[in-house]
């Protein structure tokens, strides 16, 4: 069987040894060889090991802390050791061969301590309180020190403020039952909370290890107050200037006092001292803030200065006193008063500049600058205000008045004093402007045009003119008169004096008078009267009151029996269609469309043989003359104008179908005049042609004159 060289082996191991470190054990040898020789090292079951534990149960098991190498028997550290948990470790190791024979050895591992724990310091109260009148030697706090290390590593010493001595506190060691000593924090000398209300101390504990470890704790000691200080006003005398008429509740001043004590001992309340009864009725003091405010309005005229006392009391009953002196200043609390003594209204619009229209009195009961008053006019008007003596003012005209632009002026007189802020008052002055006749009537138009149809009834309205006068009353009352015009125009129209209406005196005839002009004068009722003139042009419009008048063919001279000789024309039987037989000539005394004439064939012996030109009035053959046509033909044409209603006239023409006048004579033998009539007809035909030419020229000239007249009127 394998045999260990040493049955019991002891190994020392520091707790600072790093995991993974290897430690050899006693070796075992086996005289056998081959399969029966030493094969491996093994740890025995858990029942074969024991632990020496300081930290109590719950430590790691040996198999979790170390690893046994099966071939060499060496031990490797798996995790860091902690002396405070395991101070020693015992293992049983088996050496086995292939034949299942083994030997056992005990291995004891002793863990050595290192200074790996800093000392811990706890205080019974980290926020202790101590009265500022506590006597010396008073224990402020108890200290408890603990170091988990052992030996010199667990020996500790305490110090205050890192070894720097504190004049008010010290550390003392108190021996407890059993001989153990406990450090205490003790008061060395008296405290003053007003100088230092809290004290911060640093307690340090250091062990004896190498290297040494330490721990600190901060202790705050609060010093509780004692009412050992009275309140103190910041001033013994408070002075302020206060304006009169302050609204109730207005701040006058604020007193301030301090108390070095704290809490209720330092809480100050303010109140009146021994003061007259009227002071609390005028002033009030806030007990907490020290603000002095008004209770009712102050009046400079009643009292100019107030003096009274105040006191400050702390929570412990200690007091201090001060004096308040208030000077009341005068305020501009009276607005100027305006009195109107007289107003001259109405004022004529031609009043000269500088005319006095109103007298005023202004008074301000205040004094100094508060009673100095200036006046002005706030409205835009041709007026100004001038200061006079003794607070009197005059309102005068600053520029010319014009009733037509403004018949009334309303101005506001503003009186303002020189106080700060300035007070003002105002009153309104109403000034009426009376009229003078300074404006002539003005027609709406300088030229009027009127259009009247002829044949009007006498008294018909032609036109109404109108003139306006900016003046008032009689100065603005306008009447109308005729003041001349075209020759004879005054006999054609008349004007109504009040309304300006023009009426026709009689019926007008376009053919006699086509236009005329009259001058109308408008005159006001002022003294002296003013007037202006306008021209009225009256155009007479044509009406269709004249029927056309046939100039040719016209009836010849009458014989002894009273029968009129009728005109005739000879047309050869060889005449073709379009042969000019004659031309009906007619005129119309009207104008325009009323004078436009048209011609129509209304009756004929052979209606198909003749036609009449619509505009020219020419009678022509509508077809060639045949042998079957009667030798004597009668043609009747009507002449119409274009008026409304249209008027007309008829013209009768006798036509003889013959190759010559000699051939036609037998046809005309039945006529009463015989050869003389034929000669007269020939002579008449010559004059008719001449008259037709003259009338055509006259017609063209008339049309040209009408066009020129229209253009001129336009």
Automatic annotation (TrEMBL):
Keywords from the UniProt entry: Calcium, Cell adhesion, Cell membrane, Glycoprotein, Membrane, Repeat, Signal, Transmembrane, Transmembrane helix
GO molecular function: calcium ion binding
A GO cellular-component term linked to this record: plasma membrane
Primary location group: membrane
SUPFAM superfamilies in the cross-refs: Cadherin-like (SSF49313)
Protein localization: Cell membrane
GO annotation (BP), single: homophilic cell adhesion via plasma membrane adhesion molecules
CDD domains named in the record: Cadherin_repeat
TM annotation in the entry: 686-709
Pfam families per UniProt: Cadherin
Residue span(s) of domain Cadherin: 5-121, 122-233, 234-338, 339-443, 444-550, 571-668
Membrane topology: Single-pass type I membrane protein
Spans annotated as Disordered: 8-40
Matches recorded under InterPro entries: Cadherin-like_dom, Cadherin-like_sf, Cadherin_CS, Protocadherin/Cadherin-CA
The protein, known as: PCDGH protein
């Amino acid at each position: 069987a394998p045999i260990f060289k040493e049955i019991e082996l002891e190994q020392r191991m520091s707790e600072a040894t790093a995991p993974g470190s290897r430690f050899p054990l006693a070796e075992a040898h086996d005289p056998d060889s081959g399969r029966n020789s030493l094969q491996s090292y093994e740890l025995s079951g858990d029942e074969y090991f024991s632990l020496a534990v300081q930290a109590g149960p719950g430590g790691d098991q040996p198999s979790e802390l170390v690893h046994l190498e099966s071939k060499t028997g060496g031990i490797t550290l798996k995790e860091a050791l902690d002396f405070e948990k395991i101070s020693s470790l015992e293992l049983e190791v088996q050496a086995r061969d292939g034949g299942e024979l083994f030997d056992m050895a005990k291995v004891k591992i002793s863990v050595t301590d290192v200074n790996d724990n800093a000392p811990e310091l706890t205080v019974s109260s980290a926020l202790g309180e101590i009265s500022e009148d506590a006597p010396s030697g008073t224990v402020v706090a108890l200290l408890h020190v603990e170091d988990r290390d052992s030996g010199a590593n667990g020996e500790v010493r305490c110090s205050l403020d890192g070894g720097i001595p504190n004049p008010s506190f010290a550390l003392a060691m108190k021996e407890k039952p059993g001989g153990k000593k406990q450090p205490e924090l003790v008061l060395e000398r008296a405290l003053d909370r007003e100088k230092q209300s809290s004290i911060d101390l640093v307690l340090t504990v250091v062990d004896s290890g190498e290297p040494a470890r330490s721990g600190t704790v901060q202790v705050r000691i609060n010093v509780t107050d004692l009412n050992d200080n009275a309140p103190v006003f910041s001033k013994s005398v408070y002075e302020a200037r206060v304006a009169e008429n302050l609204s109730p509740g207005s701040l006058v001043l604020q007193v301030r006092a301090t108390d070095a004590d704290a809490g209720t001992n330092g809480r100050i309340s303010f109140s009146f001292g021994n003061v007259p009864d009227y002071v609390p009725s005028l002033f009030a003091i806030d007990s907490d803030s020290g603000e002095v405010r008004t209770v009712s309005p102050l009046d400079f005229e009643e009292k100019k200065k107030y003096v009274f006392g105040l006191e400050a009391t702390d929570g412990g009953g200690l007091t201090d006193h001060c004096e308040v002196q208030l000077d009341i200043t005068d305020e501009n609390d009276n607005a100027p008063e305006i009195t109107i003594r007289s107003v001259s209204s109405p004022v004529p619009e031609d009043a000269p500049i500088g005319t006095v229209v109103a007298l005023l009195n202004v008074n301000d009961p205040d004094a100094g600058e508060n009673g100095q008053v200036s006046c002005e006019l706030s409205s835009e008007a041709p007026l100004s205000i001038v200061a006079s003596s003794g607070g009197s003012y005059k309102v005068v005209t600053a520029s010319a008045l014009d009733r037509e632009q403004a018949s009334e002026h309303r101005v506001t007189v503003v009186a303002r004093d020189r106080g700060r802020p300035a007070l003002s008052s105002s009153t309104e002055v109403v000034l009426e402007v009376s009229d003078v006749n300074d404006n002539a009537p003005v027609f709406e138009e300088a030229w009027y045009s009127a259009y009247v149809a002829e044949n009007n009834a006498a008294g018909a309205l032609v036109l109404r003119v109108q003139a306006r006068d900016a003046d008032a009353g009689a100065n603005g009352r306008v009447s109308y008169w005729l003041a001349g015009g075209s020759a004879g125009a005054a006999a054609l129209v008349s004007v109504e004096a009040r309304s300006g209406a023009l009426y026709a005196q009689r019926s007008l005839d376009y053919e006699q008078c086509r236009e005329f002009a009259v001058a109308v004068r408008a005159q006001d009722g002022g003294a002296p009267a003013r007037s202006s003139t306008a021209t009225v042009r009256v155009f007479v419009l044509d009406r269709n009151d004249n029927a056309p008048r046939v100039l040719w063919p016209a009836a010849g001279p009458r014989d002894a029996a009273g029968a009129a000789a009728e005109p005739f024309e000879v047309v050869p039987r060889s005449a073709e269609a379009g042969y000019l037989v004659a031309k009906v000539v007619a005129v119309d005394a009207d104008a325009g469309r009323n004078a436009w004439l048209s011609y129509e064939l209304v009756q004929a012996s052979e209606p198909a043989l003749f036609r009449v030109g619509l505009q020219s009035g020419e009678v022509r053959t509508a077809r060639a003359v045949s042998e079957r046509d009667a030798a004597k033909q009668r043609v009747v044409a009507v002449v119409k104008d274009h008026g409304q209603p249209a008027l007309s006239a008829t013209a009768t023409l006798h036509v003889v179908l013959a190759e010559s006048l000699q051939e036609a004579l037998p046809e005309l033998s039945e006529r009463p005049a015989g050869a003389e009539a034929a000669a007269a007809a020939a002579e008449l035909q010559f004059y008719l042609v001449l008259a037709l030419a003259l009338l055509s020229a006259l017609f063209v000239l008339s049309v040209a004159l009408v066009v020129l007249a229209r253009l001129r009127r336009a």
